[in-house]
Amino acid sequence: MLSYVIFTVTLCGIYALLALSLNLAWGGVGLVNLGLSGFYAVGAYASAIATGAGAPVLIGWAAAIVAGAVAGLAVTLATVRLRDDYLAIVTLGFSEVIRLVALNERWLTRGADGISGIRAPLKGVLGVQGFALFYLAVVFVVVGLVWLLLRRLDGSPYGRAMKAIREDQQLAVFAGKPVLRFKVQAFALSAGIAALAGALYAHFQSYISPDQFQPLITIYIFLAVTAGGVGRPSGAVLGAYALVVFLEATRFAAEVLPGLQPVQVAAVREMMVGAALLLVLHLRPSGLLAEQMPRAGGQAQGVRRQCRDRP
Q1: What CATH number should be reported for the domain holding residue 24?
Q2: Between 179-205 and 157-167, two packed helices, what is the crossing angle to 10 degrees?
C-alpha cells in the first residue's frame, strides 16, 4: 500500500510539471498546446538515449530540457505566419509525428518494444523502497523550483507583458511589446518543462514505450489546468494533484460496479472525470484557484498619489 501511495504522489508531481508547462503557454501568452504529450515523449526519449550512451542522469535531464526547448522553437517558428489557432493544430500533429517516429525508428527508440533498463539514480544503493522515497523527494524539489520560477515570472514585468499579450495582442503591439519574441520564448520554455517531466518519468519507471505517450495525457493536463485555474501556477499544481488523486479514486469506484467489462470500467472512469470537471466549473467557473489580476483602479490611485507628492 505504501508503494502505491508513493507511486501516486510521484506521478502527481510529474503531472504538476506538465500542468505548469501548459499553464505557462496557455495561461501566460494564450498559446494552446495540443501536443503536450509529444514534448513529454521528446524529454523521456532524449534522457533515456543520453544516459544509455553513458551520460550521467543530470546530463540526461539537461539534454531533455534542451531537446524539448528546441522542438518548441521549431514548432512556433514553423507557424510564425499563421494565426494562433493553427498552432494548436500543428502541435497536435507534432505529437502524433513524435509517437510514430518512436514507434518505427527501432534503431533509435527500439520501436514498440520500448527502451528498458533506463538508469534509476541510486536505486542500487537505496533499494526499491528507498529509491521510491528518494525519487519522490527529487520530484517534489523539482516541482517546487519550477513553481517558484514561474511564480516569480508571473509577478514580474515580463509576466505582466505576457498577460497583456494574452488579453489583447493588438494592444500589446501598439504598446511596443515584441509579441512574437514573447510567444517564442514562452512556448520554448513551456516545451522544456514538459520535456523535463518526461525525463523524470523515464528514470522513475526505467522503461518507456510509444503507447505511454498517448494524446489522452494532453487532455488530462488540460482538465487539470482548467479545474485548478488558468493563468495561476498554484492552480496548475493543485489541479494536477487533484486530477491524479481523482483518477486513482475512480479506479476503485468503477471496479465495484457489477457486471462491467474492463473496457466498460475504463469508459465509466472517463465519464466520472468529465462529470467532476463539469461540477467544478459549475461551482467555480474560474477554477479552484482563480487568477488574481491587478485592479486598474488601485494602479490609477497610485499614479495620482505620486503626482500629488511631486513638488
Answers
A1: 1.10.3470
A2: 110
